[in-house]
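Whiteboard transcription, Tuesday session. T.W. wrote the structure tokens on the left side:
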């Protein structure tokens, strides 16, 4: 069995410093006589250690209704978490994964925007015809076809609003599940 070299504290700090200066993982591995995997692990461990041991100097204040706070405390209690601050800190730390732009949501909203532009163009055409008739001093031509267009646009707009509501609720539900999973992992890790 090959005995692996154990890096000293000074060597680990040197690896972090030299990586910041642009040295590659491969060069660092050769220089310190370890594998590239050891370099990756050392960098990740030092990053986590610095984050955990850094002085916390920023405060976030949140105003909640009594019901919202009671629900949050009840959830923490079900998860076995006794410390609100630590739970919020974990949520914030994991937020990088939760609050990323959602490509699917962005694509859906882009298609909705195009559909809404078409509706806007149709409304503009109807308004233009009505204004032209008014400027000529004639009664606007407002027949069955115009009425059907307006009904169709009205129905489309209502359907459009319902689809956006469903999409946003689905996205919020997904984010809630992600937050619950983060807190659950924190609670499981605290045992």
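and on the right, the sequence the group agreed on:
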């Amino acid at each position: 069995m090959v005995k692996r070299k154990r890096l000293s504290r000074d060597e680990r700090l040197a690896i972090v410093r030299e990586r910041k200066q642009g040295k590659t993982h491969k060069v660092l591995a050769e220089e310190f006589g370890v594998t590239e995997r050891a370099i990756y692990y050392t960098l990740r461990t030092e990053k986590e250690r610095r984050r955990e041991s850094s002085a916390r100097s920023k405060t976030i204040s949140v105003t909640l209704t009594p019901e919202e706070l009671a629900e949050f405390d009840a959830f923490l209690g079900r998860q076995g978490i006794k410390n609100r601050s630590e739970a919020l800190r974990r949520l914030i730390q994991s937020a990088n994964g939760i609050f990323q732009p959602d490509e699917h949501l962005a694509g859906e909203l882009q298609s909705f925007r195009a559909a809404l532009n078409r509706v806007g163009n149709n409304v503009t055409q109807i308004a233009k015809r009505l204004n032209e008739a008014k400027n000529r001093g004639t009664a606007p031509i407002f027949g069955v076809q115009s009425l059907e267009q307006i009904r169709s646009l009205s129905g489309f707009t209502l359907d459009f609003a319902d689809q956006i509501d469903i999409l946003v609720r689905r996205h919020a539900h997904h984010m809630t599940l992600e937050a619950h999973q983060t807190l659950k992992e924190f609670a499981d890790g605290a045992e």
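Someone added at the bottom: The chain has seven helices and no strands.
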